[in-house]
Amino acid sequence: MRNVPLGDFDHLPTEVLAIATDYPPGYLLPAHEHRRAQFLYAATGTMLVETTDGAWTVPGERAVLIPPGTRHQVRMLDVRTSSLYIEPAAVPWWPHSCRVVDVGPMLRELVLSAADLEATYAAESRDQALVSLILFELSALTEVSLHIPLPHSTPLVELSRRYLAAPDLAVRNTDWARTVAMSERTFARRFREETGMSAAAWRAKARLLASVPLLHHQNVAQVAAALGYSTPAAFSYAFHRAFGVAPSTLRNRPVAHSRPPVLGPDV
User: Fold this and answer.
1) Residue 143 DSSP label
2) Do the beta carbons of residue 80 and residue 45 sit within 8 Å?
3) pTM of the entire structure?
4) Strand pairing partners for 22?
5) pLDDT > 60? residue 260
6) Residues 128, 132, 134, 135: is their CA dihedral positive or negative?
7) Does residue 131 contact residue 15 with C-beta atoms inside 8 Å?
8) DSSP 2
9) What is the mean pLDDT of residues 147-154?
């Protein structure tokens, strides 16, 4: 199923619904939630996923696991997705918060092939076997920790969201404290209480997350320079320390669209 609304099929007694969707560049999928667990795979581009608890950056050829009933929004940067909407009873191990995961070649091909399935499929059929294999492969995924927590109070979360959208190396705690009409000491304490991180460390990690979409179009040296790092090695070290992977591993392969992008209707 391609470029069709989930709502047209969600009522079916099908364990897994697979829907592939093409999105215009920069498209914002507004805040929504699903009854089913969602495996949201970026075949191309980068997805920026946000919930009330945090923000996740999902490079191409990776996926995010979204729990049932979790309200989330997604910014699509040149993205084609393949989603699996799964009955919660079929994945009792599903995480309770979003997780970015690596997707190996076998699972990638299975997920892409699943978009050609009908909304319903017969028991003990080839399609059922493919779905069963997908569920087995999903249970053995490896997390990539491309995540940053968000504060909970309105003034601090608004500051954080603006910074994620446009990181600025020149911003200091003094600037943020003045913006929210707090003393610098009070601001620093509140921010750490709500995120578990100092504001300075949070901004540094946010800048590293912002580098992920850039890595799709630029090499590591170019991205390091854009973020103000003295050398590519310094950027790579900071990135690996923050996320446990080298930035070069997140440079996904461009994949040509097989059809013109259309508005994604899978809310």
Assistant:
1) B
2) yes
3) 0.86
4) 80
5) no
6) positive
7) yes
8) B
9) 94
